[in-house]
Amino acid sequence: MPESLVDLEQQRQAILQRLLELPDFRSGSITATYGTCGKSSCHCHQLNQPQHGPNFRLTRKLRGKTVTETFASPAELQKARREVAARRRGGRLGGSQDR
Ligand SMILES: [Zn+2]
C-alpha cells in the first residue's frame, strides 16, 4: 500500500523539525584550559606558580566549523556536561529538566 501524501508530508515535517533542533545539540567535548590573567603582578605570571583555571569550554563541530563555547556559570557547565554525557550514551538529551 503506497504512502499517502499526507503521511509523506508528516515525515518531512518531522525530519525538518529534527534538523532545526540540531544546532542546539551538544555533540562536542568539554576541555579544561589554564592561563594567565592581565595583571603582571599576579602569581600566575611567576615561574612554577599555578596558572588560573581550570577554565572549561565546549568545542564542537557546527556545519563543518569548530566552535568554542565558554560557560558563564558553573550551572551552565553542569548542564553542558549532562548534555554531552547524554549524547555519548546514545543521543538522548535526558528529557526536559531545567531550561
Ligand atoms: Zn593571574
Structural notes for this entry:
- The protein has 99 residues and is α+β, with helices and mostly antiparallel strands.
- The chain has a domain at 28-88.
- Helices cover 32% and strands 24% of the residues.
- It contains 2 helices and 3 strands, in the order H-E-E-E-H.
- The protein has a 3-stranded antiparallel β-sheet with strand order 1-2-3, covered by helices on one side.
- A hairpin with a 2-residue loop joins strand 2 and strand 3.
- It is rod-shaped, with a radius of gyration of 21 Å.
- 4% of the residues are buried.
- Zinc ion (ZN) is lined by residues 36-37, 39, 42, 44, 52.
Head-to-tail CA distance between termini: 43 Å
Number of strands: 3
Helix-strand makeup class? alpha+beta
Quaternary structure classification: single chain
Estimate the global geometry from the Cα principal axes: rod-shaped
List the strand order in the largest sheet: 1-2-3
Helix content: 25-40%
Arithmetic mean pLDDT: 80
Bound molecules: zinc ion
Total number of helices = 2
The topology string of helices and strands comes to: HEEEH
- Largest sheet properties: 3 strands, antiparallel
Q: State the low-pLDDT regions, or none.
A: 94-99
- Rg on CA atoms, Å: 21 Å
Strand content: 15-25%
